[in-house]
Amino acid sequence: MRFIVNNEGKRGSRDERRSEMKMLHLIIDICKNAIPPTLRTVAWLLRIMLPISLAVRLLQYYGVIEWCAQFLNPVFLHLGLPGASAIAFLTGASVTTYACLAVMLSMELTMRQATIISIMVLICHALPMECAVVKKVGSRPYRMAVIRIVAAFLAAVYLNLVLPEMSEPFSHVIAAAEEPTLTDILTEWLYSSLKLSLMILGIIYALMVIQRLLDDLGILPRLIRPFQPLMRLFGLPKSATYLWLIGNVLGISYGSAMMLELEENGVITKEEANQVNYHLIMNHSMLEDTMVFATAGISALWILSTRILFALILVWGRRGVMKLPRGILNKDFHEI
User: Fold this and answer.
1) Which residue has the higher pLDDT, 71 or 111?
2) Is the pLDDT of residue 295 over 80?
3) What does residue 316 show for φ and ψ, rounded to 5 degrees?
4) CA–CA separation, 124 vs 127, rounded Å?
5) CA 306, 308, 311, 317 torsion-angle sign
6) How far is CA 247 from the centre of its chain?
7) Tens digits of per-residue pLDDT, 168-204?
8) What angle do CA 221, 227, 229 make, to 5 degrees?
9) CA distances from 111 to 3, 73, 105, 142, 319 (A)
10) Residue 110: beta bridge partners?
11) Each residue of 208-237: pLDDT tens digit?
12) For residue 110, what is the DSSP state?
């Protein structure tokens, strides 16, 4: 009896070791196989992002963005905003939300004004870079840009109507630093580009490995299942759940990188990726963006509710137009 028990114990131990070795080989294979698509995806993203980021920094340095802002001043005055806030909007629209926040901190704004500008930029930011990225996965970049710009101003009109009076100051004005030289601008761009490249490489590689591991272990369907009912609410296909999750946590650039990978593997179609992009251009990077602006004092409730509202309006509005009798407008929407 003791011999049988010992044999069973040894056999069980051997099976456990065999299972562990099998899992280890699986992880090693996944890590190795994820390297080539990661390098291709990172190279694609950096070819888009680095030249655009340099061009925008030079436009800022030479005052082109500030010059463009003067033409928006009358429009912003009608939105309950100071005319100078056009500079903050154009900075965010051309670069990032962080750049916009830096400009806002140098202005005298009330909390109400800061809330309106923040949500405008959260809907419409980094347009050159993000529109170039979504083009690769099948969406039309210029139309995406126009939609985001129009939505940003409609959101400002909406918020100007519904926001309560918030007269407390957004922040104490931070004194402007010494004017940077062109050398400073280029040095900062090189440093930030290196950091960005390493960060993108790490994030994309981790995403590739995790996605393959979850898929091979059969965990991915269980992970995304709780979010699938939301897809029906948002007017998106169930197959978009994983992309929606990635885009909302990490943003459009990383979400599009994963879309490209899944498109190439035949997991999703270009039309499904396009549908997800219509949602994500209004409502992406919800975790990071909300935390950044909430830390600065902007209400997370207004950020989340406004962006989700406009995502719902855009996706369901597009679906409604596509169901119209076939004609010029309907054909145009089918081609978007």
Assistant:
1) 111
2) yes
3) -70, -35
4) 7
5) negative
6) 6
7) 988 755 445 567 888 888 898 888 788 878 887 887 8
8) 110
9) 77, 19, 12, 32, 36
10) 169
11) 888 788 778 878 778 888 989 999 999 998
12) B
